[in-house]
Structure of Glycosyl hydrolase family 10 protein:
Amino acid sequence: MQYLPFFCPLLLLLFLGSSLVLSYDGPLYDSSAYRECKLLPEEPLYNGGILKDQDPNLLRSILDNGDQVSYPTFLLQNLTQGNKYCFSVWIKINNADSALVRASLVTEETTLSCIGTVIAKQGCWSFLKGGFVLTSSPKLSELNLQDSAGRDIDIEIASASLQPFTEEQWSLNQQTKINKARKRAVIIHVSDRHGAKLQGAAITVEQVSKDFPFGSAIAKTIIGNSRYQKWFTERFNAAVFENELKWDATEPTPGQVNYTIPDQMLKFVRANQIITRGHNIFWENPKSSPKWILNLTSPDLQSAVTSRIQSLMSRYKEEFIHWDVSNEMLHFDFYEQKLGPNATLQFFTKAHQIDPLATLFMNEYNVVETCNDDNSTVDTYISRMIELKQGGVTMDGIGLQGHFDVPNPPLMRAILDKLATLGLPIWLTEVDISKQFSKESQAIYLEEVLREGFSHPAVNGMILWTAIRQNSCYQMCLTDNDFNNLPAGDTVDKLLKEWQTGILEGKTNEHGSYSFHGFLGEYKVTAKYDNKTVISTFSCKSLPEAPLYNGGIIKNQTQQIHNNLSLSRTAVKSPAFVLYNLTGNTMYSFSSWITINGTDSAVIKASLTTDNNTFNCMGTVSAKLGCWSFLKGGFVMESPSNYALIYFQNLDGGQINITVSSASLQPFTDQQWRINQQLLIETERKRMATLHVSDVDGNRLQGATIVVEQVSRDFPFGSAIAQTILGNLPYQNWFFERFNAAVFEDELKWYSTEPQPGIVNYTTPDQMLEFVRRNQIIARGHNIFWENPNFTPSWVRNLTGPELQTAVKFRIQSLMNHYKNEFIHWDVDNEMLHYNFYEQRLGPNASLQFFETAQKSDPLARLFMNEFNVLETCDDRNSTVDAYISRLGELGKGGVSMDGIGLEGHFTVPNPPLIRAVLDKLATLGLPIWLTEVDISKSLDQETQARYLEAVLREGFSHPSINGIMLWTALHPYGCYQMCLTDNNFQNLPAGNVVDTLLKEWQTGAVEGQTDDHGSFSFDGFLGEYNVTVNYGNRTANSSFTLCRDDETKHWNIQLQS
């Protein structure tokens, strides 16, 4: 039986669609957060919400010591009980270097002493984000902003916002986040071995494991307790040992180390394939440290801590997915007081050296639970983490304990938003609710916390602090001693059921497809048909930012004024930078901030002239009057230049005043550029994996032989195909041996499927679709309409408006209905930046209507813009990167669901720094980017084509926002459009050799080895599916797993049966 781990972001024959979108017309939660102290505040969230146009008052009060302080306050009327209120504001102080500013709320009945904090500074603006929930409906409330230390400091505020959400609106926002971050749309295609789609096949889909780690602490009481073990394994896929790994448990007296109990607990989690956190190496609270270390001299303590970390980490190397290295360091500093300010830094450094695959965490309380604890505010946590990382520490994870009294969901979400700006995995590590509350209240509060955690995209896992001891739990139990659920346990079971897909049954439709939305995880799919069963398992800113690379080689260089001719042959003055001694074989990355005067907006082009060459364009930006816009680009110097000039022009040739600031030019040698690419590939396209081998009792097995083989790739890499592939077995074999993605070159285009009005023929694309289905190759749909009139059916060009409207309606409905659920993407309206045939004839909303209809017809397909000369050059005024972004924005404002960015990639001489810069800017949109039609001009010889192709492919594969690459190399008897990979006998041409070399380089292949003394085997693999075979003695086990994109090591447990 084979399980399908297809719910990571992986495109297979069972391919993923867009996330499920709920119908909702209320306010959408804004997750924006900022760590930086900025020269100017950003705009208010929600346009200010109910604080829009309201100015704060300045109140004065007398402190207990008689001092008078003044502070800004907002007077709020008629707040509503039960609503969630999200508050944010930008803060600057003027008579202190820094201050912890706290927001509080005072009503007639209650005082919420903290609803958000920020460490504010003098001379710049810091962002405070928080919120509150009210248990009554006060007629008048005060929202105050004060120095937490009670000092009378000058607090300036700007861009304040208070946005209410009803309980229903809050819940719908949570569900929207869950549907996007925790679920995927899936289409199962069922076909026979010839690729013919099968209608009416019975489908059963069962989720057999969950992707999201949700677990609980366990104690030694679980050892030998079969009822406890059964109850635990039926619910949880993650664990942490409550106390058994702590220093006072493993070495209660000096030198007497005993790991018997944690070893037995580890056998239990291993035997049940449960991932486990390591908690903890050190605890900074002296009351929770071994008593015998408290009075040690510094040298003796140093010796003891060295022994502790070496012993613990060596014994449990690769056993635990995380380690809490120095617990609660924001509240306590026992070791730093004794051993010096670098003690914690040394702990993290040593832990990483011993177990480099484990994710190392800070772990702290009162960060997410409240903002009333000055020791552990969100900014304090961030500051400490950055401090450690600047000291060289490998810090991989954010641990938030989560010991709650009354949870404050808006505050919790705001804190998670701010922590998420660090880009590190966040875990809720010790969640419970105070025992001061009734069991029913505990359950209510627990559900609030868990829903908030699960719905936040930055939370990677949740662990409850509910280990069952002899008679109780630390604060909250899920069951009684007979394992009958308490109210909190009922809440957990309810959520576990809600957050799992369960079993789905249905039949394939007329397209041979079955669709559903499922939670991420592993699934078993059974298909039955005719007694056969298959089990398969982008903004303009008020001030420019600082220059990149601190300015690079033009740091502190004064701009000169350059006289050049505009397009109208009029002398124009331009800012310029004079460069001396540029080196050959060097990539130069250029950036600057630009503002203009003399017109409202203009496309500004940066150009380069050297003593032997001219680069007409090395970057563009749509600049505006009164604010600063960012230009990013670059160039390649193949030979050295003694003198060069960078200058700026209005692409329209008009005379305007161009001002440049924060310019930067950074050189990279070829080697440095390649190393940067490889670092990105290692981070984005690969993942560490550790395989744990044990017997059925959880005993680790040293010396087991491991063979790991990658059997499919996660990254879609393919080529266009033409009808010439039909019946051509050598072409078919050559293609599917290499590629996992395809696009039909011309066969789906309107002029191919309906060459005469009303005579529609899909025979050829149907046959091509059977080929890709049969070989489990995903396919893009190209295209529905093409705005270039030269590639529109000849009979369409002379239609009247009404006739054309009828024809396009028939075209889109016919095509989309025939191929519903068959293609992962659709290029809806091809090359609309360069041409506008349909909008000229049908009105300015024609493209918008095309997208809307396509979305309704095939809601699971991703809809793409597809355009040339966005990436290939910046000299095409029609398709600059900002023009592309602007057009996307227009469609979005019109209500179009735009899912993807298509960049054709028809290159002559590629410019890698420009390619990367354009991709960086497009990536700010947060949409998947595909290179859809990559080739190199046939004006170049084949060897040069190959060299340039490699440069383009490496640039694409190494960029984190590229989700797939398609070559435009369909083979015809006459050759190919611009570039072929093979000759007509399928012997590689130089470009084909490049493709084969890269395919081999970007695949893990077979890896062999033996498990170490921890029963573990680790490797670094490209994302995709793997088969693994384990041999130990006369026992063999076969398993399969998937490496999906994640910052944490993938742990996979394999058990050998007796």
About this structure: The first helix runs from residue 167 to 181. Residues 1-16, 565-571 have pLDDT under 50 and may be disordered. Residues 345 and 391 are 7 Å apart (CA to CA). The longest strand covers residues 657-669.
